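Appendix C: a fully annotated inverse folding record. The material below is reproduced so that readers can follow the format used throughout the book. The structure is listed first as tokens, followed by the designed sequence.
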């Protein structure tokens, strides 16, 4: 009896095991059988952008790793090893496969090991479908509609200030006018003497100037009026401009160039400012983020090694040997500069709302679905960050569908308020809300204020409370 039960469980266990083995075989067959055929391009593109695009391009170009164009013809090591390479490159290298060995010999010295990617075999299949067949390589989302301004086209910063030259000219002109007046007077005096009359009486400059002014009263009053009017206008603009920082663009410790990264190399804003999608702050990337690429990219076209060298100085990286000093970085690569004792890069803050204002990036970017450019302008053409001007932002309306055009200077309270009055909130389009709105709008006994809100079939941020002081003020 006992024997029978024992046999029974054994048979059951055997059945389960064979079933599992069969499943595994089947799934492997599905996953590894034809990795190059039948993947989903769209899904692959999303996966590629999320996991691979920071190092690889789908063209032949090298970013921080070889470009993946033509990988199908190159990759002679079979599907299984391809998946393993992507999931765990170092383990795949231990297989001793000759192609992978050549890959390691060729690239690891310069670029370091490829980091292990948390993707499944099916994901790899989709990614490869995209890599072999990228639908439109030249249209990154970040720079929709605008052509890249390359490093070579960027204006070199001009140290000359034209108003200085204007001032120099003005002083020069005054000196000439005064000397001419002096010469004129001496000559007139000499003429008087030669005619036998008495020379012009001695007079101080002030007395002479007063005399001249009395003789040219109309001209002097016109100039005076102009000067007063000018002072009033400048004074008014100055008062209205208190707290307005449009166009502010401080120098930065490293001459970072947004256009090189965002536009030429198609690095998404999210790669460096990812917390804009998750929190109040957009944040400035840490030096480690720069090192993901600059471990390999050691020279820039505009500044050569000097500017990129500052990243290395901050984090304690020796570009010659490609290693971190004092073993920094090997201890988990969290914050090598602690180990090295280096100074973190001190970026100067460009945008700065007063402490009494609450502003959340996530609320605007994720929930509100706004483009970064709606508040920051076409950053992909900038060098370092700058506070955009409303008039420049308004020009982007053709490039960014749904961009909201405003009139008040950026980052002022009027600007926030104006947009909250214009911006519509998109409600879930299940038909549920629409029906509810219709009923509320048409209900005779309903709330008068609510009905007014619903009349135009639009719900703005203001109507949801976006004008309440406490929403923005602590
Ligand atoms: C942190 C940078 C980085 C990321 C992210 C990355 N790779 Fe790589 N990859 C490399 C480097 C560097 C190499 C070259 C070999 C080496 O140095 O390890 C490489 C090599 C490869 C190769 C072989 C290229 C050839 O020419 O044979 C493939 C295929 C590959 N990666 C696929 C991927 C895929 C797919 C992803 C995303 C799921 C990905 N990689 C993400 C850095 C990266
Ligand atoms: C996704 C990869 C990537 C990341 C991340 C990255 N860079 Fe770059 N960077 C590049 C590439 C590619 C170039 C272009 C080199 C060239 O062709 O001129 C470059 C160029 C530069 C240059 C040189 C400009 C010139 O023309 O001389 C500087 C300075 C620079 N980066 C600073 C930074 C800083 C600082 C960070 C971190 C905040 C950073 N980069 C992050 C890829 C990257
Ligand atoms: C609705 C307008 C708006 C949008 C949309 C927006 N920002 Fe901002 N951004 C601001 C304001 C306002 C500040 C100043 C915040 C402060 O001083 O507290 C700011 C500050 C920043 C800063 C400085 C660091 C910080 O967190 O204060 C960065 C970087 C930044 N934004 C990047 C982005 C990126 C990237 C996006 C798109 C993903 C984006 N912003 C979208 C309004 C916006
Ligand atoms: C390769 C990394 C990188 C990428 C990609 C990148 N940025 Fe930046 N961003 C920086 C760094 C570094 C700074 C700090 C230096 C400066 O102000 O330029 C900065 C500064 C800024 C600032 C000013 C921050 C302040 O102090 O108020 C804004 C706004 C900004 N970025 C927006 C964007 C937007 C929008 C995008 C995408 C179109 C983008 N950035 C893409 C690295 C990046
Ligand atoms: C370009 C348009 C735009 C600008 C500029 C803008 N906002 Fe907004 N804001 C929105 C949108 C859209 C939403 C609604 C997001 C949603 O669907 O909940 C929003 C929502 C908010 C909310 C949440 C309101 C609520 O009812 O919960 C706060 C707080 C806020 N914004 C603060 C600010 C501040 C502070 C500024 C100025 C520094 C600002 N916003 C500038 C478009 C804008
Ligand atoms: C949509 C966001 C928003 C709402 C709603 C809002 N404010 Fe403001 N408020 C701001 C911002 C942003 C500033 C900072 C402007 C600056 O620094 O130029 C500000 C500044 C102020 C200041 C300081 C004035 C100054 O020039 O620094 C006062 C006072 C103020 N708000 C009162 C109010 C009152 C009262 C309400 C309600 C009727 C209100 N705010 C509603 C965003 C808002």
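Designed amino acids, in order:
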């Amino acid at each position: 009896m006992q024997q029978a039960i024992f046999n029974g469980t054994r048979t059951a266990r055997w059945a389960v095991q064979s079933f599992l083995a069969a499943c595994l075989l089947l799934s492997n067959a599905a996953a590894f059988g034809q990795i190059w055929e039948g993947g989903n391009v769209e899904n692959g593109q999303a996966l590629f952008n999320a996991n691979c695009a920071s190092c690889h391009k789908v063209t032949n170009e090298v970013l921080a790793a070889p470009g993946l164009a033509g990988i199908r013809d190159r990759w002679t090591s079979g599907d299984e090893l391809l998946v393993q390479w992507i999931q765990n490159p170092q383990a795949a290298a231990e297989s001793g496969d000759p192609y992978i060995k050549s890959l390691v010999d060729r690239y690891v010295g310069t670029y370091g090991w490829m980091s292990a990617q948390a993707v499944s075999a099916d994901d790899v299949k989709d990614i490869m479908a995209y890599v072999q067949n990228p639908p439109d390589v030249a249209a990154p989302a970040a720079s929709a509609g605008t052509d890249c301004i390359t490093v070579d086209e960027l204006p070199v910063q001009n140290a000359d200030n034209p108003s200085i030259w204007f001032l120099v000219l003005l002083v020069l002109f005054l000196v000439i006018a005064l000397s001419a007046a002096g010469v004129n007077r001496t000559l007139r005096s000499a003429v008087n003497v030669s005619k036998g009359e008495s020379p012009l009486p001695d007079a101080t400059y002030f007395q002479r100037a007063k005399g001249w002014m009395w003789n040219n009263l109309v001209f002097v009053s016109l100039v005076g009026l102009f000067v007063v009017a000018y002072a009033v206008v400048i004074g008014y603009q100055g008062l209205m401009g208190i707290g307005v920082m449009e166009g502010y663009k401080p120098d930065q410790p490293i001459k970072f160039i947004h256009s090189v990264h965002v536009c030429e190399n198609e690095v998404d804003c999210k790669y460096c400012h990812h917390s804009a999608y998750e929190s109040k702050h957009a944040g400035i990337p840490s030096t480690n983020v720069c090192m993901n690429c600059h471990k390999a990219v050691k020279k820039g076209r505009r500044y050569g090694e000097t500017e990129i060298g500052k990243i290395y100085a901050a984090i304690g990286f020796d570009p010659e040997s490609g290693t971190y000093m004092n073993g920094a970085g090997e201890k988990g690569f969290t914050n090598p500069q602690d180990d090295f004792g280096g100074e973190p890069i001190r970026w100067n803050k460009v945008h700065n709302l007063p402490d009494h204002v609450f502003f959340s990036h996530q609320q605007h970017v994720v929930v509100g679905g706004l483009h970064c450019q709606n508040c920051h302008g076409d950053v992909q053409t900038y060098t370092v960050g700058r506070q955009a001007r409303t008039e420049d932002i308004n020009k982007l309306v053709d490039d960014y569908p749904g961009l909201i055009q405003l009139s008040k200077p950026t980052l002022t309270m009027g600007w926030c308020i104006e947009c909250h009055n214009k911006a519509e909130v998109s409600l879930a389009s299940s038909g549920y809300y629409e029906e509810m709105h219709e009923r509320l709008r048409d209900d005779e006994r309903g709330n008068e204020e609510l009905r007014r809100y619903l009349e135009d079939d639009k719900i703005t941020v203001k109507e949801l409370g976006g004008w309440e002081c406490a929403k923005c003020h602590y």
